[in-house]
């Protein structure tokens, strides 16, 4: 068995899942082979951004079985996003069941254990149906597409250089905490700008004062302090990353590190010896430097992933691929 992944490009699998919400209720939902949608041109998702999504992965274990990581947490976050977007929620049970069905129907697209590639799972909801005025849609589609993906790096992960955006991805009490397309639309321009300037991506500061680190592109920021503590910022406009939550748990309960959630000022980074971006897609991307207002701050661990970050990374992927015992009921074996 070989991996069908082509980097993070979309590779069409055999089936996707679709369920319709009409007349105040969800239908049963079903699997189908075609990955296109026919919707009204006046759908709220097209004009007013009424949509949200999730991202998680299916992992092939050494024994050949397939497993999911913290799928109920994705289901809960999806409910939060739907509520914020005035969309009907799907029950935890329906969400988890749909993810399981979709993955099992595409089992041959879950890459082999040895490749360390995974099947990326993208549940999403969109407002559909005839509508013109600004109001929640009359109908909705909940769908799940999957694609095999390769991790961004293998083995000794090289650090990347980051810029800092002058723009915001979300407002102070806007939609930063929920996983909605609008935040991403707002982050494309600064991301392209950052890449043009030679950076891997850009950091977003808190939208109110532009002094504190909030997010790294579409990932959470964390650091390891001189004292060996795990530090990550907290704010109402940061997306509650399941990867970050897992790293906090591993740092505290497996590595015995102190976990600190507090502001990290962009012009005061000297207390950090390692820095990284974390999220489902890239897992952990180590950050070697941050350039802010023409000044390049280089972290002590600036070439390859630092020692503590590496330990966190190995433990996390060990749990995700089933090599390390699940410490906290995070795993669902299919
Ligand atoms: C999805 C996402 C993350 C990462 O969340 P995970 O649950 O770890 O995948 C971080 N920041 C933003 C803005 C996101 O959309």
UniProtKB/TrEMBL annotation:
Catalyzed chemical reaction(s): L-isoleucine + 2-oxoglutarate = (S)-3-methyl-2-oxopentanoate + L-glutamate; L-leucine + 2-oxoglutarate = 4-methyl-2-oxopentanoate + L-glutamate; L-valine + 2-oxoglutarate = 3-methyl-2-oxobutanoate + L-glutamate
Protein name: branched-chain-amino-acid transaminase
Transferase in keyword set: yes
SUPFAM superfamilies (alphabetical): D-aminoacid aminotransferase-like PLP-dependent enzymes
Keywords: Aminotransferase, Pyridoxal phosphate, Transferase
Family: Belongs to the class-IV pyridoxal-phosphate-dependent aminotransferase family.
Keyword Transport listed: no
Enzyme Commission number(s): 2.6.1.42
Ranges that cross the membrane: none
N6-(pyridoxal phosphate)lysine PTM positions: 179
Cofactor: pyridoxal 5'-phosphate
InterPro entries in alphabetical order: Aminotrans_IV, Aminotransferase-like, B_amino_transII, BCAT-like_C, BCAT-like_N, BCAT_family
Pathway: Amino-acid biosynthesis; L-leucine biosynthesis; L-leucine from 3-methyl-2-oxobutanoate: step 4/4; Amino-acid biosynthesis; L-isoleucine biosynthesis; L-isoleucine from 2-oxobutanoate: step 4/4; Amino-acid biosynthesis; L-valine biosynthesis; L-valine from pyruvate: step 4/4
Pfam families, sorted: Aminotran_4
GO biological process: branched-chain amino acid metabolic process
Molecular function via GO: branched-chain-amino-acid transaminase activity
Domain of life per record: Bacteria
């Amino acid at each position: 068995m070989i991996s069908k992944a082509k980097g993070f490009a979309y590779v069409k699998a055999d089936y996707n899942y679709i369920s319709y919400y009409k007349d105040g209720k969800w239908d049963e939902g079903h699997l189908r082979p075609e990955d296109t949608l026919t919707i009204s041109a006046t759908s709220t998702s097209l004009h007013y951004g009424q949509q949200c999504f999730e991202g998680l992965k299916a992992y092939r274990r050494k024994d050949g079985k397939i497993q999911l990581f913290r799928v109920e947490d994705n289901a809960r976050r999806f409910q939060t996003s739907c509520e914020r977007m005035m969309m009907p929620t799907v029950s935890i049970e329906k969400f988890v069941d749909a993810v399981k069905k979709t993955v099992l129907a595409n089992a041959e697209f879950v890459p082999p254990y040895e490749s360390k590639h995974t099947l990326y799972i993208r549940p999403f909801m969109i407002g559909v149906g005839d509508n013109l005025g600004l109001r929640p849609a009359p109908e909705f589609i909940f769908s799940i597409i999957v694609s095999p993906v390769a991790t961004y790096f293998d083995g000794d992960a090289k650090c990347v250089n980051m810029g800092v955006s002058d723009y915001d991805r979300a407002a102070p009490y806007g939609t930063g905490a929920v996983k909605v397309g609008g935040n991403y639309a707002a982050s494309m321009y600064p991301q392209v700008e950052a890449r043009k300037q030679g950076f891997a991506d850009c950091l977003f500061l808190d939208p109110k004062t532009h002094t504190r680190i909030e997010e790294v592109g579409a990932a959470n920021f964390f650091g390891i302090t001189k004292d060996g503590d795990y530090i990550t910022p907290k704010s109402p406009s940061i997306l509650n990353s399941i990867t970050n939550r897992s790293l906090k748990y591993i740092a505290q309960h497996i590595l015995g590190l102190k976990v600190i959630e507090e502001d990290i000022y962009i012009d005061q980074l000297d207390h950090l010896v390692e820095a990284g971006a974390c999220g489902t897609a890239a897992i952990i991307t180590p950050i070697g430097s941050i350039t802010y207002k023409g000044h390049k701050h280089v972290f002590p661990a600036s070439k390859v992933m630092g020692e503590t970050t590496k330990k966190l990374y190995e433990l996390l992927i060990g749990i995700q691929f089933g090599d390390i015992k699940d410490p906290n009921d995070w795993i669902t074996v299919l």
